[in-house]
């Protein structure tokens, strides 16, 4: 009886750990995808994707457990062919330093050309990399553009 209770407790602890490991990378941030965008399941708490209702635009948020630079993050995001148009240092969240990148690239999934806006910053020893991608020349979604700037710790 005691052994069975111990096994149940251990199973519950493992299940709770699994849920924590699979939480969204946005869980500790103020980041919020636009209303109506569909979230994919989180990939081990490391990455998550949100798609616009018509699936033509997407947001991706990645969390790295170490401090990284933008070149390392872009390589991890499989964006080696992205052509950076502009890179600038910005502040978000009332003074938090971040890097803003504007780029053009080709989607490996659809083989279509697109515009990308990316913001990268560090919070609590982790690096966060947010990407907003849309078809080349498509109008930007203001909520999506705002979301990538909300890599701020929850208060």
Description:
This protein has three helices and seven strands, in the order αβββαββββα. By secondary structure, it is an alpha+beta fold. β5 and β6 form a beta hairpin. The protein starts with a helix and ends in an 8-residue tail after the last helix. Mean pLDDT is about 80; it is low at about 1-20.
How many H/I helical runs? 3
Indicate the mean pLDDT: 79
CATH C-level class:
Alpha Beta
The number of domains: 1
Instruction: Write the element-wise H/E pattern from the N-terminal end onward.
Output: HEEEHEEEEH
Shape, per Cα inertia axes: globular
CATH topology: Protein Transport Mog1p, Chain A
**CATH-level-4 superfamily name:** Mog1/PsbP, alpha/beta/alpha sandwich
- Largest beta sheet: strand ordering: 1-2-3-7-6-5-4
- How many β-strand runs? 7
Evaluate the radius of gyration: 18 Å
Q: What is the CATH architecture descriptor?
A: 3-Layer(aba) Sandwich
Quick structural gist:
The chain has 155 residues and is α+β, with helices and mostly antiparallel strands.
Which key terms come to mind for this protein?
single chain, 155 residues, alpha+beta, Protein Transport Mog1p, Chain A, seven-stranded antiparallel sheet, 3 helices, globular, disordered N terminus
Give me the secondary-structure topology.
Blueprint: H1 2-21, E1 38-39, E2 47-51, E3 58-64, H2 70-76, E4 83-92, E5 96-106, E6 113-123, E7 126-135, H3 142-147
